[in-house]
Amino acid sequence: MADAAAPSTGPARPHARTLRRDARLEQLALFGLASPALILLLAVLALPVGWLFYLSFIGNDGGFSLQHYERMVDSKSYARIFRTTFEVSLITTGLCILLGYPLAYLLSQLPKRMAALCLLAVLLPFWTSLLVRTYAWLVLLQRRGLINEWGMSLGLWSEPLALVHNLSGTLIGMVHIMLPFMILPLYGSMRAIPADLLNASANLGARPSETFRHVFLPLSMPGLFAGSLLVFVLCLGFYVTPAVLGGGKVIMVSMRIATDIELFVNWGAASALGVVLLVLTLGLLYGASRFLSLDRVLGGGSR
Amino acid sequence: MKKHSPLLAAALAAGLTAAGPAQAEDSLTIASWGGSYQEAQSKALFQPASAAMGVTVKELTYGGMSDVRLQVQTGAVSFDIVASGSGSAARAGAEGLLEPLDYSMIDVSDFYDGLAQEFCVGGDVFSTVYAWNTDTYGDEGPQSWADFWDVEKFPGKRAYRAKVAGALEPALMADGVPPEQVYEVLASEGGIERAIDKIRELKPHIAVWWSSGAQHAQLMKDGEVDMTTGWNGRFDNAAKDGAQVAYSYNQALFDMDCFAIPKGAPNKDLAMRFLAEISKPEYQANLPNYITYGPTNRAAYDLGKISDEVARMLPSHPDNVALQLPIDTEWYIQFEAEASAAYQDMLTE
Questions:
Q1: How far apart are CA A18 and CA A12, in angstroms?
Q2: Which one of B209, B336, B341 has the shortest CB-CB distance to A248?
């Protein structure tokens, strides 16, 4: 037995070693291929974020200080601003799901050419300046704007509605701007669902609603997660739309960062706000990843 | 008006250094805020003075004192002269970002009081006023800050500034503090809180918190609000465009825009001489032809360049000056950060 085993393990060991060496070399080669991207990320992402982190601990006198964080704890307004920021982002994401999912579903069921045409309509806002779209909403929604004028001349309401310079105006503008970011990933993942699976489900006796719930919905989840994540994270840092449509009442973190840079003599106060927003966002994503597989959220393993 | 990209500005600055002192001595880089405001400055002040002195003036637009801070901190100062608000110039001066001005060269003997400061010499005079929609209130609009606060007598939506500068003084006057005691009260214990409490009282009627001059002019033009605070020149422009808007100088805040020289400016001495030139009445008298902001030099009114009709509209007309409260930059240097924090707290409530 021992004699029989020895010759078989003898040549196997060097073989395994070679395999391992090859694997290492391949890893190294892959790493080499990825290195330009890694170096770029380090230069444009890791270093500035690190610098931001460092600046946030520099006090007005130039030494190490926690004053910027202490200010955030002491002043109630910062907590309220972070709450507003997350609230607006969450509601915007929710509304985008409600509006975007049915639309993406419709698009995915259309013939390819029709769908392409409709997608064009979805993408059109992408090609218009953000500022122009935001100001267009201002023109539509204000007290003597088109919507109020028409609504009142049709007798639908008698007093002008407060549609803008508040939370509702901000949400309308943000949902409009964010919707493509929700629809595109959704549409992608819905298109990728094989029709055979739906046919099979129907063949096995499932009603359309059951097919949707048990087959289509779960398979479209990666797109939904990816879209929601995109919209939510983009909303967190939004500046222009809440600044123009919020009427100064919807104050988000980005706006406070701008105020702090103007007001305080160094970048530390603004950096600290950026750091806190980053940490809160990462914490939230980590929390979400414990319930959902992050791999799925990021669009992997769709089938 | 010339407008250059920052890259071009850097290239120009580099070119200046390379060209040597002889050529640099004859050229100045001036940064202002662009738009119709800078166009007025350029036509009334920069171009005539540049022709008279034989100096080449390069005009840029910039984003305010944070740009100057960046240049001074990195030791790459390219601006010789910057236009600024009085408060931010005073703070920047206290921070060490600006050169002190040499008033043995700049003749300010005919300037209004307070318009020639250590680091910044007045370039034009404007006023923070209350303006109202003449469709809503007719010509019998509010005549004091107390009226602005009186929502029974003057029902309607208000707009107010989203920043603390020029926001607390009206509140105190509405609360019954005489104009001459406003800064005394603001500097005393609880003074800032008193003003902010008064704004809290009006808050339910404030539909918009404005953050730029273009915005408050547009709000009046669109009839989005019935009453707002704001800068007088913007309302005149809006009225020219057909807006139903009027304003009053009674209890308004008399303020100025000014010119400063960044610390380490490449052509500091020439810049000082240029400021001396544009502070002369003959240039200051050109200003109202291009924008309804007033000259800082009283003698400008004696040259006959400004018609009486135009002069009466300007914030620096003696009759109008008497009605207004001058902004106290000393108070802003000392208290703005504290007041702003409290103001932002109130805004997020």
A1: 10
A2: B209
ipTM of the assembly?
Answer: 0.80
CB-facing half-sphere around the CA of B269: CA atoms within 13 A:
4
Q: CA of A258: which chain B residue's CA is closest? A: B66
Provide mean pLDDT across the span A124-143: 90
Phi, psi of B249, deg, nearest 5: -90, -5
Same-domain pairing of B137 and B98:
no
Q: List chain A residues with CB under 8 Å of B64.
A: 262
Highest mean pLDDT: which range of A33-42, B154-163, B228-237:
B154-163
Here the CATH number for the domain that contains residue B315 is 3.40.190.10
Residues B108 and B134 in one domain: no
Please check whether residues B200 and B344 belong to one and the same domain.
yes
Same domain for B189 and B104: no
Within a domain: residue B1? no
Instruction: Please give the model's pTM, rounded to 2 decimal places.
Output: 0.83
pLDDT for A266: 67
The structural domain count of chain B equals 2
Whether residues B41 and B137 share a domain: the answer is no
Kindly state the average pLDDT of the residues A174-187.
94
Contacts of A243 in chain B (CB under 8 A): 211
Q: Which amino acid is at B317?
A: H
Measure CB to CB from residue A144 to each of B223, B341, B344 and give the nearest one: B223
Query: How confident is the model at residue A97, as a pLDDT?
Result: 97
Which residues does chain B have within 8 Å of residue A75's beta carbon, measured at their own beta carbons? 341, 344-345
Structural domain of residue B21, as residue ranges? 6-125+256-325
